[in-house]
Design brief:
Elements lengths: L2 H4 L12 E2 L6 E2 L8 H23 L14 H19 L2 H14 L9 E3 L2 E6 L8 E6 H4 L7 E5 H8 L3 E8 L6 E8 L5 E7 L4 E2 L5 E5 L2 E6 L2 E5 L15 E6 L8 E5 L6 E8 L5 E8 L5 E6 L8 E2 L6 E7 L2 E6 L17 E5 H7 L6 E4 L5 E8 L4 E7 L5 E7 L2 E7 L6 E7 L6 E6 L6 E5 L6 E6 L10 E8 L5 E8 L1 H6 L4 E4 L14 H6 L6 E5 L9 H5 L7 H16 L8 E6 L1 H12 L6 E5 L18 H4 L6 H10 L14 E6 L8 H12 L4 E6 L10 H21 L3
Parallel strand pairs: 34-35, 34-36, 36-37, 37-38, 38-39
Antiparallel strand pairs: 1-2, 3-4, 4-5, 5-6, 7-8, 8-9, 9-10, 9-11, 12-13, 13-14, 14-15, 16-17, 17-18, 18-19, 20-21, 21-22, 22-23, 24-25, 25-26, 26-27, 28-29, 29-30, 30-31, 32-33, 33-35
Amino acid sequence: MTMHKAALMVAGPALLLAACDPAGNGDVTVNETAASSHSQSEERAGVDAEARALNAAIQSGSEELLWLEEVEGEEALAFARAQNERSLGHLQADPRYQQHFDRALEVLESTDRIPFVTVRGSELWNFWQDAQNTHGLWRRTTLESYETANPEWDVVLDLDALADEEGRNWVWRGSSCLAPDYRHCMLTLSDGGSDAAHIREWDMESRSFVEDGFVVPPTKGTTAWIDEDTLLIATALDPAETTTSGYPFVVKRWTRGTPIEEAQVVFTGAASDVGVWPARFQQADGTFYLLATQAETFFESVYWLLPDNAQGEPIRLTLPRRVSPQALFGDQLVFSIEEDWTPVEGGETYPQGAVLSLSMSELAATGELPAIETVFVPGERQSVGGFAATANHLLAVIDENVVGGLWVFTRDENGWQRRQVETPENTSVSITTADDQSDLAFVSAQGYLTPNTLYRVSADATSLSPAKSMPAWFDTTGLEVEQREAVSADGTRIPYFIIHNPERSGAEPGPTLLYAYGGFQVSLNPSYSGTMGRLWLENGGTYVLANIRGGGEFGPAWHQAGLTINRQRIYDDLIAVSEALIADGITTPAQLGVVGGSNGGLLTGVMYTQRPDLFGAVISQVPLLDMMRFHTMLAGASWQAEYGFPDENPDERAFLRSISPLHNVDPDREYPPLFLLTSTKDDRVHPAHARKMAYLTGALGLDMLYYENMEGGHSAAANLRETANRLALEYTFLMQNLMDGEE
């Protein structure tokens, strides 16, 4: 568990561009009803001149489009609504849109989905959404019932009923309940899907919110229980206690019955930090430790042991700054390091990527760093996918060449021992839940053509037995999965998966959808998507996932190779995969589409501006596109360790200018159709990134569609129907441009 990282998306020349002029000079329009080709040419020339001036101003650093940063500004929303009307009119008029929507919704709302659970004591907890429960049900059952075909669920909270009662568009963000009885819970609910959310105390005995209980107004902060009458809180409610990234940097101790304003400060970071978050680590015997994560950058943190009373002082854990706590197993704090580390001068150096442990009780008692033990050191093509502790076993996902495996670790007088558990071949493995009070644990396994199956781990952690499985949602006849490699510009071999029908793709090039992310040490592993299979593969498409640098597929070094001014390597990796697909006859530039979201939206934006000749369609979801101002908008300041510090480092600013999609559109260059998607409620990546790109490309008369969901947050969807709508829009756009070229 990495504490702060867990807390860490066709305006043709003849269409009307309904965009408000920020200078107040009226609407910028492109006339689609010119009386003659001569007069139309004159009008286009006028618009072109104005658009060229706008583009030149943006490239020179002018903030001509700053008005689009007003999230709910009247002009900005008018622009978004006009674009929505145009884009929805174009895509939803295609009969395939409704077919896609219906087929996607069937998958998303299916009651045959696996109800994934969290273990709390003797109960299994699940949050569930379907056609009747759009906001969702928070519910529980027993292990015995869960293992039947039709579990009996006890609904604890009906979020639809609560939303109706309170007139809010509640989106579930999770619960934190106090062990071992789990009666006292803090529920996190977002109104519309934004990251800033309400935190309210819930009593399991009365099944109601606690009258005069702990209530935190909308915030990007978090809480952690000390005991039933005391919380640790980090709220970011006071601007004086909020970082430049919009997160809290002060942790307080809040006692029941006292105003939140009187909560006692127990730790203070700095406004320049990304943020500070409290957390509770608890052992099977009930011993617990309170920690605060002081994230100085997105990847560098200082961890503090906090007192469980009002008198103690925080103790700094002398760990490396690039470290990720993974689990508390017995007395051992298990953590991974993202940099080489020599704890004692002249002593042993532990390599980047190693998983280590130390005695938490010794650390708490003395404040000194105890002896370090090695749990696991990954090989060159391995990476650690996560840990979870049961009472007697430490479970770990260890990926080998992007394919998952399950390992079990134990510790005795001879140190750490490990063994591998047999799992289905060529699948991605993940730990869904583990109970540190018993040896109950569930893991899941899935592949591109293999529906997700949930397995129960045996009590001795030697084998897996199927517990539940997802139905097959699409026809896999003739389909195969291959893992290939492309050679990037610097000679690095970049793996990618291709899901296709070799007989068809071997006969002639065909429509191909390429997906990648390439950032923040996020690994992309094989996964089963019923919607992608139904809407793309079944319609003759080929799907490709590229494991480019910037991710964590091969450990920290794979990620760090593409940080800041080295980021072009990431883009070169995806270009290399694209060129390989074309050279191998899988597809052609006119039939190749690329899609990515958030950091992946930046990736596809760079593909759009750097290599438009490689693609027939580009989808950029909730994207970063203005890399000269990303750090000034919402949570953007927290990502400077990934992208660079444009206000502090001239070299990094120059590099960001060279790759910023908004600043690299050439009015004289041909570009593929572009589909930009964002959300007004996204308070993580500002919707202005997509708005600005839409305004500019629309003004230049480029082939662009834009859709801004007025709800939904960073996922761009607040419920399953909105998700189905987004998918239907995207696949309709892809088919129009890659399969049949319809306008």
